[in-house]
Design a protein that fits this description.
The structure is a single chain. 29% of the residues are buried. A 6-stranded antiparallel beta barrel has the order 8-9-12-11-10-13. A 5-stranded parallel beta sheet has the order 3-2-1-4-5, with helices on both faces. The two termini are 41 Å apart. It has helices at 17-33, 46-50, 61-69, 83-86, 90-101, 123-132, 152-160, 164-171, 187-191, 274-289; strands spanning 2-9, 35-43, 75-80, 104-110, 136-140, 144-145, 148-149, 175-182, 196-200, 210-218, 221-232, 237-244, 256-266. Helix content is 32%, strand content 31%. It has 2 domains: 2-149, HUPs (Rossmann fold); 174-289, Riboflavin kinase-like (Elongation Factor Tu (Ef-tu), domain 3). By secondary structure, it is an alpha/beta fold.
Length: 294
């Protein structure tokens, strides 16, 4: 590969199909022009620094990095997003950061990209200025799903409505929560359906309350599971994420666990008696066992 990079830059929360189209363009140009490939992203989310009101995350930092690595970029740069960086003008960012620091020779961005202080550098400006300094430039058009542009905002809306199967299609992978197993009330075991509670990583998006079919990754082994997310009106207990794994009878506490959400099975229901509750749980488990996509 010759000196210099073809690169794209952004937060890339969710790494959805629109982001993936950007990545594919970068890798294609890298191969055609014999340039190295690079992705430049930020930590923390820019809105955390700008107004202290970042949206809930679609990917943990660890999972985001794993997914970025899977594309085979020659270089992944994670810029610490600071107040000083946020005040960099569009010209400064392109010339000082992209061109001088990272030797970007070809920039690939999305159709609605903005950069620099107050997001003042729009696509038209970027196209003009990169041409002025001799940097090649490509715009990638949006990816749509039934005439709606795929975006991180669209995915967050789907998840807060319980449409985890839609989010799966938009991201190309299921929504994942990662965390550690923690002690719960122990009611599941008494009912004959032992469960484990999960303490997810901070700042992750909360899916709509309900019962879900999930894939559980525990000790590097995949299991089918049923997840209860929300408050329990039957037992008057507060918010929790509680998992039943039919083929695992005992799970140690403080174990790393990953939960992939595939399908919302039903709303949370207040049951008048334990018999009806157990009947509903059996039905949930049967649906999970028969779900081929898990």
């Amino acid at each position: 590969m010759s000196k210099g990079y073809v690169a794209t830059v952004g937060s890339f929360d969710g790494i959805h199909l629109g982001h993936q189209k950007l990545f594919q363009r970068v890798l294609k140009i890298s191969n055609e022009r014999k340039l190295n490939s690079m992705i430049i992203t930020f930590k923390p989310h820019p809105r955390t620094v700008l107004n202290g009101n970042a949206p809930p995350l679609l990917l943990s930092d660890e999972y985001k990095h794993q997914r970025l690595q899977s594309y085979g970029f020659d270089r992944i740069e994670i810029l610490k997003f600071t107040r000083d960086l946020s005040e960099t003008s569009p010209k400064e960012f392109i010339y000082e950061v992209l061109l001088s620091k990272f030797q970007v020779r070809h920039l690939v961005i999305g159709f609605n990209h903005h950069l620099g202080f107050h997001r003042s550098g729009d696509v038209k400006f970027i196209e003009h200025y990169t041409s002025e300094i001799g940097m090649d430039f490509d715009i990638v058009e949006p990816v749509t799903f039934y005439h709606t542009v795929i975006s991180s905002t669209y995915i967050r809306k789907a998840l807060t409505q319980g449409k985890v199967d839609l989010a799966h299609k938009l991201m190309g992978c299921p929504y994942r929560l990662e965390g550690y197993t923690v002690k719960g009330a122990g009611r599941g075991k008494i009912l004959g359906f032992p469960t484990v509670n999960i303490q997810p990583k901070k700042n992750m998006l909360k899916v709509k309350d309900g019962v879900y079919a999930v894939k559980v990754i525990l000790n590097h082994i995949n299991h089918k599971g049923a997840a209860f997310v929300g408050d329990s009106p039957t037992f008057r207990e507060g918010y929790r994420i509680e998992i039943h794994i039919p083929d695992v009878s005992d799970i140690q506490l403080s174990k790393k666990i990953k939960i992939d959400f595939f399908l919302r099975l039903r709303d949370i229901i207040k049951f008048d008696n334990i018999s009806d509750l157990k009947k509903a749980i059996r039905s949930d488990i049967n649906k999970v066992r028969n779900l081929d996509s898990l």
